[in-house]
Amino acid sequence: MKFFIHTFGCQMNENDSEHIAGLLAASGYQQANTIEESDVVIVNTCAVRQKSEDKLYSLLGRLGTLKKTKNLTIGVAGCVAQLQRSNLFDKNPFIDFILGPDNYWQISRIISSCNTDKFIATHWHNEWKEIPHIQTLRENFTSAYVTIMEGCNNFCSFCIVPFTRGREKYRPMNHILNEIKSLAQQGYKEIQLLGQNVNSYKAPKTGKDFVSLLKEVDRIDSIQWIRFITSHPKNFTKEISAAMKDSEKVCRQLHLPVQSGSTSVLQRMKRGYSRVEYLQIIEILRDLMPDICLSTDIIVGFPGETDKDFQETISLLQTVRFTNLFSFRYSPRPYTAASRMKDSIPLETKKKRLIELQSIQKELQLKMNQSLIGQTMKVLCTGQSKKDPKIFSGRNEGYQVINFRSEKDVIGKFVKVRILSCGPYSLQGVVIQ
Ligand code: SF4
User: Fold this and answer.
1) Euclidean distance between the first and final Cα of the chain, in Å?
2) pLDDT below 50 — which residues of the chain?
3) What are the residue ranges of CATH 3.80.30.20 in the chain?
4) Separation of alpha carbons 295 and 297, rounded Å
5) Which of 70, 248, 267, 274 shows its CA 20 to 30 Å from the CA of 429?
């Protein structure tokens, strides 16, 4: 039997799909390259934005048509599955099972019994459920995701995550460290610690915090780069900045979602920090690590966002100079506090603001990238061009995309690359060693 997993959304979902794939492989299933050649298709969904939910419904339409001509088992997993549960069956009766994030470990049993018993995602659990890490089928053999916590207690007013992933639960520290040690033995060079709010990590039983975890991970031989995502400014302490600076392995790179540059919007978003407080964190980070690369998330058109609020967001972009930006138009999500506010910004204004924001960021990125031309940087190579086998791709410590020429195959290796040219979204160069 062959399976195919289509993943929408963030790194947490990608890592969940790797767990599901590993569990299926351990039960004798084989991974297929396409939907058409599989017997089981699982769609791992994202509910954070309406747009990704819309893409799910279009994919389900395609799968429903395919099922008329082929014996196919179809499952829906992830956040939309957890949120919609039986509604998904009602609207798409061809679906065979619906799996929430807390049910993945049961995947093989659910598939084998779904002819007689359609499974619907259960409510989330409060306790961590460990999936043996040796059963994770990873997409990448150089850089690995390692989940350290799940869920969120913050209830930002726009965000659906606390309703799909439940409250925060933390993975025991010894399980995290054992997984990373095993990855190091397998030759992984980089690990990315994952969670909705990694900075609030608290080890069950011992209560050890995120800084303690970082220090423990730092001691593991062979892992050379450590990253973590997602951080919340409210929980981003001076101690975390200091731990980053003191480590030679924690990359000089941080994704710190700001969401808006206006304090009044941040208050309505229930983010728990002001513009000034966000900028103070950036100042501390840059004092300690002047070369740190920062990226962020921004939502435009949040209910009540005035032109002045929006201009404050633009000025924050220009002040911080992020190396990467993930920006979105606000769309109300069910159950959230913001969905009960009047969605007061016309669609055209949201679109205009998003275009303006992205074009300013594009210019800033281009200028920052141009200043790197001529420099030599360490790059972890993770891919090779299909068209030209001498062109490789990877990321530098700042998590910027680098495409480069090398005469030798360097996949999975650290190389030194001299930057020769750039665009706003990537750098191009050549291996010098
Ligand atoms: S911190 Fe806010 S935005 Fe992030 S997952 Fe939690 S509720 Fe959502």
Assistant:
1) 45
2) none
3) 133-370
4) 7
5) 248
85-110 pLDDT, tens per residue?
A: 878 888 888 999 888 877 888 888 88
- Angstrom distance (rounded) from CA 48 to CA 278: 23
Say which CATH architecture domain 2-113 belongs to. Answer: 3-Layer(aba) Sandwich (3.40)
- Domain boundaries 376-431, CATH class: mainly beta
Class of domain 133-370: alpha beta
| Ligand 1 closest atom vs CA 162 | 7
Return the H-helix or E-strand segment holding 144: strand 143-147
Give ranges for CATH 2.40.50.140 in the chain.
376-431
Ligand 1 atom closest to residue 259's alpha carbon, by position in its atom list:
3
- In this prediction the pTM is 0.92
Q: Which helix (H) or strand (E) holds 414?
A: strand 414-422
User: Which residue matches tokens 């259960």?
Assistant: 122
Which amino acid type is present at position 124?
A: W
CA of 197 to the centre of ligand 1 (A): 7
Task: Output the CA torsion 82→86→90→96 (10° steps).
Answer: 80
Q: What is the pLDDT of residue 100?
A: 82
Prior bond to 230 cis, omega within 30?
Answer: yes
Cα angle value 371/372/378 (rounded, 5°): 165
What residue owns the CA closest to ligand 1's atom 8?
Answer: 159
Burial class (CB in 10 A: 0-12, 13-18, 19+), 130: exposed
Ligand 1 interacting residues, C-beta cut-off 6 A: 152, 154-156, 159, 161-162, 196-197, 232
CATH 3.40.50.12160 domain position(s) in the chain: 2-113
116 CB-near residues (< 8 Å, 6+ apart): none
CB atoms within 10 A of CB 386: 7
Q: What is the chain's percent helix, strand, coil content, to nearest 5?
A: 35, 25, 40
The atom of ligand 1 lying closest to the CA of 152 is: 6
pLDDT of residue 400: 97
State residue 8's pLDDT score.
Answer: 92
